[in-house]
Amino acid sequence: MAQNSDTKDPIESLSDQLTSWAHQFIDSLAAKTIRPLFVGVRALTVGFFVATISLVILIAGGIGLTRLFDVSVFHGRVWATDLLFGAIFLLVGLLLLRRVNAKGDSDVRH
Questions:
Q1: Which residues contact 85 (CB under 8 A, 6 or more apart)?
Q2: If you placed Cys at 81, which of 62, 69, 77, 94 could pair as Cys (CB 3.0 to 4.6 Å)?
Q3: Is the overall model pTM greater than 0.70, yes or no?
Q4: What is the pLDDT of residues 85-99, one digit of tens each?
Q5: DSSP 8-state code for residue 74
């Protein structure tokens, strides 16, 4: 007796359903765990790379600006460049300190 190709064996049908369910479960699990993990790791990696490159550019820019003032503006007088940058950093620091103290005074009760 020849078996019709349209009818499936019940065990074969059950195995197909279990395989389909397993694939759906694994895909769902991956979508909720592995993919967000990869996105987070990718974001951390790119953020670290951008921060590192920004730091290198900031340091190189500071060195270049200092050399520019030493050689071109003050013609080898390093003390003048140090005085200028020291005064700039002092003023910026005082302004930031004043801003922090102005915000902090409203919170403190005497």
A1: 66, 69
A2: 69
A3: no
A4: 999 999 999 999 999
A5: S
Return the residue matching tokens 């005064």.
87
Structure-block tokens of residue 88: 């700039």
- Given a contact cutoff of 8 angstroms between Cβ atoms, the answer to whether 89 and 96 are in contact is no
Per-residue pLDDT tens digits for 51-97: 999 999 999 999 999 999 999 999 999 999 999 999 999 999 999 99
Distance (Å, rounded) from C-alpha 53 to C-alpha 59? 10
When pLDDT is cut at 50, 70 and 90, the band that residue 3 belongs to is low
Is-contact 81 74, C-beta < 8 A? yes
Decide if 81 contacts 70 (C-beta within 8 A).
Answer: yes
Which residues touch 78 (CB under 8 Å, ≥6 apart)?
70
For residue 80, give the amino acid letter: A
d(CA 43, CA 33): 16
